Amino acid sequence: MNKKNTIIIAGFAFMLGYFLRQQQSEKQRIKPEKALKAVKDYFQKKYEVSGSWIYMKSEPLQKNGLEYEVYHGGITKHIDSEYVPYEFYVDAYTGTVIDIFPQHPEQVHTNT
To answer: Name one Pfam family in it (predicted).
Structure first.
């Protein structure tokens, strides 16, 4: 192999490495604490929040035919003089709430 080919291959390898690194950095998960804070901040606009939790490891979730990598957490809202626990799934890359539902289905309220 001559010098010219070596330089071309090295340049290509560098560009490929750079491109793969950019792709990797764009697909970084947000920290679970940041996801939980975003959910709490959103719900505190409408309700009193008395507690919250989140699992530190993400997990796969299928919803409406789509696949997500999510954090699973919970939040307790004060509604109509009651503390009602809800669970949620939040996208691990964007922080978007994918689903939220009462922890105990018998405690369904119409003002969620």
So the answer is: PepSY
Below-50 pLDDT ranges, the chain: 110, 112
Structure token pair of residue 104 = 């105990």
- Which tokens go with 48? 């009193």
pTM for the complete prediction?
A: 0.68
**3-state SS class at 23:** helix
At 55, list the tokens: 């699992």
Report yes or no: 51 and 76 within 8 Å, Cβ to Cβ: yes
Alpha-carbon distances of 111 from 28, 79, 108, rounded to whole Å? 35, 8, 9
For residues 92 and 58, the answer to whether their CB atoms sit within 8 Å is yes
pLDDT of res. 17: 58
Best CA proximity match to 84, nearest among 53, 57, 56, 105: 105
